[in-house]
Design brief:
Blueprint lengths: L2 H11 L4 E2 L2 E2 L2 H11 L8 E8 L2 E9 L7 E4 L4 H12 L4
Antiparallel strand pairs: 1-2, 3-4, 4-5
Helix pairs in contact: 1-2
């Protein structure tokens, strides 16, 4: 998927476009994701929080190739899976 497609899909499922505790437009979310994956940062995964009807959830946006359509996102199905996302994020922070 492209970042534009991801931003549009995430916006459609979110409550009021709230990510990381802030309200985004589709364009703002697309811009944010694109900038987090700038080549000089060398990132291949972005962890964010989305507001869904059943609460706040951590999720990942992943880059798996060099093209503009090489992105996907994963929202955990369970809180246990979400805990693993959080644990992976915190590795090496301590």
């Amino acid at each position: 998927m492209t970042v534009k497609e991801i931003a549009s899909q995430l916006m459609d499922i979110s409550v009021d476009g709230v990510f990381n505790g802030q309200k985004f437009t589709v364009w703002e979310l697309q811009w944010y994701i694109e900038n987090m994956f700038r080549s000089e940062l060398g990132a291949d995964k972005l962890v964010m929080q989305i507001t869904l009807p059943d609460g706040l959830w951590m999720f990942t946006v992943n880059r798996w190739g060099d093209g503009e359509d090489c992105f996907d996102y994963v929202i955990p199905d369970t809180r246990e899976e979400e805990d693993r996302v959080w644990s992976d994020l915190m590795k090496g922070v301590e």
